[in-house]
User: Fold this.
Amino acid sequence: MPDSAGQEFTERRGPGRATDQRGRRLRHAEMLLDVHARLAALDSLDEALEELVTITSRETGADRVTLFLNDEETGELYSRVALGNIRREIRVLNTIGIAGHVFNSGESLIIHDAYSDPHFNRSVDEQTGYETRDILCAPIRTVKGDIIGVAQCLNKKRGQFTEENLEVLRAMTLQASITLHSAQFAERMQKSREQELEFLDIVSDVTSEIDLGVVLQKVMSEAARMLNAERSTLFLNDEKTAELWSEVGVGLDAVPIRFPNHLGIAGAVFQTGNSINIPYAYADLRFNPEFDRQTGFFTRSILCVPVVNKHGKTIGVTQVLNKHGGAFTDEDESRLRAFTAHVSIGLENATLFNDIQNMKNYNESMLESMTNGVITLDEDGRIVTCNAAGSRILRVTARDIIGCFAWEYFRDANHWVMEKIHAVDQNQQAELVMDSDIEAGSKRVAVNLSVLPLLSTEQRKLGTLLMIEDISTEKRIKSTMARYMDPGLADQMLVDGTEILGGKSAQATVLFSDIRGFTTLTEELGAQGTVALLNEYFGLMVDCIQREEGMLDKFIGDAIMAAFGIPVAHDDDEDRAVRAAIAMIQSLQQWNASRLAPGKKPVDMGIGLNTDVIVSGNIGSAKRMDYTMIGDGVNLAARLESACKQYAARILISENTYRKLHGTYRIREIDRVIVKGKTEPVGIYEVLDYHSDESFPNLMEAVLYFKDAVGHYRKGDWQHAVSAFGEVLKLNPSDRLAQVYIERCEHLAANPPADDWDGVWVMDTK
Assistant:
C-alpha cells in the first residue's frame, strides 16, 4: 500500500507479495475509475488535458508531464498544458524527438539517461534551461488501437521510472483516450464552424468591395492566412494579351507580374482548369526555379487552383506557397476552391469597374492631352466640359464657363459661333469654319472651328461638340521646332496637327551625355580650339540622335540633353534612345581614331538614359523662353550619366528603360542604388553593344559570371563575390567595373554593413 497518493507502489518480497499485488490492482482500478470520473465531468479539451497531466504527474511521481495530441492537418504533435513553468502551446513535427519516435513506432520507452538517447532533442532544454534526466513515454491509443498522441513524463522525483510506472501510464492514457478523442473531435467541429462563419464574413467583405486593387489584396491576404501559407498570389487572365497578371502578393513586393497564360504551374492550371498540389516543388518538372533564383525565395510546396466564374469560365488562378507545418492537404484545396468560387463574382465586378474607370480616365486623359480645344454642350445649350486646350485658347478657366449657356459666352464679336451651333441643332449636320477669328480676352486668335452634333446610339440628340484649333502660331512653331529636331519631323508634326510648345506631360526616354575631363581639355586647347572641338563633336552626336528621330533639347556646356518620345511618340522610343547612345559611342571611337593620327588627344564620354513621365514645354520669361524638359525622370538620367564615372561605364540605363526595351542587346545589371534626393532604389544596367571582341573579349561569358558575382554581393557573401568578380577579370582583365566591385566587397568585408543590408548602394553624389 502506498503511504501517500504521490508515491509509487512498493514492491514487496516474501509471503506478503500476493497481498501487495492485490492491493496494487485495487489501487490501479480505483485510480482508473477516478480518471474516468474526473474527465467525464469536463467540457473542453484544454480542461481534459490539464486534469490528465495533474493525475499523471501524481501517479508517476514525475517532475513534469506533457500530453501531446496529433494534429492530422499539420502533421504536428501539440500540447496546451504542461506541469511546471511552461504554460504555452507546444508544437513539434510528429517525426522529431522521443515523442515523435514513440508516436510513429507505437512503442513505449523508459529512458534513464536522456542525453545518451539518439532520439532525444536537446534544443528544448537549451531554450528553456530545464535539464532532462530520465523520460517515461507512451503512445495514447484508442480502444481500436489507433494512436492519437503521446504521453511524456520527465525527471522522476524519487528514484527512476519503472515498468510499473509505465503500466500505470498506459492504463491512464487508454482510459482517457475516449474523452480526449471526443474532445478533440468536438474542438475540430467547433473550429470548423468558426472557420465557416469567418469564411462567410471574408467572402462578404471581398464581394462588397469594388476597387480591384483592394479586392486583389484582400483575396490574397485572406488566402494566405486561411491556409497558413507564407505567400499567395492571385493571377487574372488578360484576354487581350493572353497573359496572366498580378500586381499584389502577400509576402511579395507589390510589383506587376505578367507572363503567357500557358506557362508554368499557374499556366497549366489555367489551361486545364484542374488544381495542382505539389508537396515538393523542386521534384516537379513543371516547376520553374528561375523566380526563386531571382528573388532568393525558396519554394517548398505549391497549391494552385483555378478561379472559375458563375458561368464556368476560368478567369484566373490562385496560388499559395509554403504551408507552415507541411504540405497542403485535400481539405486545403477544397477550401481554396470554395473561397475562389465565392469571390469570383467580386473579382469580376471589380474588374468591370476597373475597366470602366480606366476607360473614363483614358477618355479624360485623352481629352486633356489634346492640343485642340474641346467644348461640349448639353441638349439645352449649357456648357458641360472644357478641356485644358480650350481654356488656353479662349483664355478662360474651365470654372468660368462650365455651367454657363453657350450664348452667354459666344456673343458680340463671337456671335458667329452661335450661328453655327444653331445650324447644327437644326439639321444635325457638322459645320466646319476654316481660318476665322475668335476674340479671347483682349486678343484675337486665328482658329479652325468644327461644330458637331452629339447623338446617342438611338440617334437621340445629346448635345453639341465644339473643336477649336489654334492656327495663329503655326509658322512660328515650325521655325522653332526645326531647331530641336529634323526639319522633316517638324513638317510631319504640323501636318498631323501636333502642338508641342505648350506645357505637356508625356512618357519619354531622356538622354544625357557629357565629355570626361573637359576642363583639362579646355586648358590645353584654349578658347578657339575648345569651340572648334565642341562644334565637331556636337555635329557627330546630334546626327546620331536625329537619325533615331530624337529631339535635341539643349547643349549645356559640353553636355547634351535629348529626348525620345516627345514631341512625337513611337512604339520603340526606348530602343531608339539605346541605339542612338550606341551609335554615339561608336562615332566617338571612329572620331578618336582620326584624332590620334595628327597627335590629338582622344575624347571620352558617358551617357545616361531614363524612361519616365516628364513635363515639356516653353519655360522662361516674357522676354526669353526655351523649350525644355523638367521632372524627376530628367534628373535621374543626369545622375546616371554622372554615375558612369563611378562604375567605369560609358552607357548606363535605368530599370525603367531596360524593362521597356523590345530589342535584344548585350546588357548587364550592375547595381541597385538610391540616388541623391530619393528614398526608393532603382536598378542600373550597362549597355555593352558598342564593344568589339578586342575591346571586351569573352563578353557574354563575362556577363554571366558578373551576374553570379552580383548575386553573391547582394547576399553579403563577400568571399564568393570576390571570387566570381575575379573570374570576370580573367576573361577580360580591362573590365574596370569588376575591379570596382572587388574593392567594394573588400571594404564591406572589413566594415560589415547593418543586418538589414539588402545590397542597395546609396549614392551621395549628384
Observations:
- Residues 595 and 601 are 7 Å apart (CA to CA).
